[in-house]
Amino acid sequence: MTLTRRHGLAMLAIVLVTIAVEWWMGRVPLAPDGTFAWAEPDIWSAHQSQRVLDPYTVSHIVHGFLFYALLVLVAPRQPVATRLVLAVALEAVWEVLENSPMIIDRYRAVTIAQGYVGDSILNSVSDIVMAGLGFLMAWRLRVLASLAAVVVAELVMLLLIRDNLTLNIIMLAWPIDAIREWQMAGR
């Protein structure tokens, strides 16, 4: 892959626009109390989605794998570096949407994230970087290794926190009380 200055500047611009939009939306740069920390391992913490890393970081890496697969299918002739920029843009769009009042309210209503207040800008930027990292991992791995990585990531998160990207999608689209009850029992 030849990552040119133009690709790098495009990704930087995407991140900066995301920061500006989220700032305009009222998102906080760090946690609501203004503190910085590298990680928050507790999904029930008020600092969840406020730090550089959290358990949901794994889901954003999986996003990168999925964006790689999608872009191989829809833009196979585009250079890998261009597809990386597109993946970063897709993740940035998701970050803005995920932090909109509509999605925050939906998370609170139907998932285990009852106290979810949205991501800090720091966390959103980290999520974008992690999706880019997932994309690059998928690019370097063979197809079966990529599939295995996604399955392992989903299973490990299911075992550790009773939540993962798959359950997140299910619960946002078609909430199932039995899943939510099972997830809450792990609290």
Note down, in words, how this protein is organized.
There is one protein chain. The protein is an all-alpha fold. The chain has one domain (49-184). The protein is 66% helix and 0% strand. It is built from eight helices and no strands. α3 (80-98) packs antiparallel against α5. The mean pLDDT is 96.
Provide a short characterization of the protein structure.
This protein is mainly α and 187 residues long. It has helices spanning 5-24, 57-74, 80-98, 101-110, 121-140, 143-161, 165-173, 177-184.
The count of DSSP E runs of length 2 or more, i.e. the number of strands, is 0
Number of domains: 1
- For the CA atoms, what is the radius of gyration? 17 Å
**N- to C-terminal separation?**
44 Å
SSE order and pairing:
Elements: H1 5-24, H2 57-74, H3 80-98, H4 101-110, H5 121-140, H6 143-161, H7 165-173, H8 177-184
Helix pairs in contact: 1-3, 1-5, 2-3, 2-5, 2-6, 3-5
Descriptors:
187 residues, mainly alpha, globular
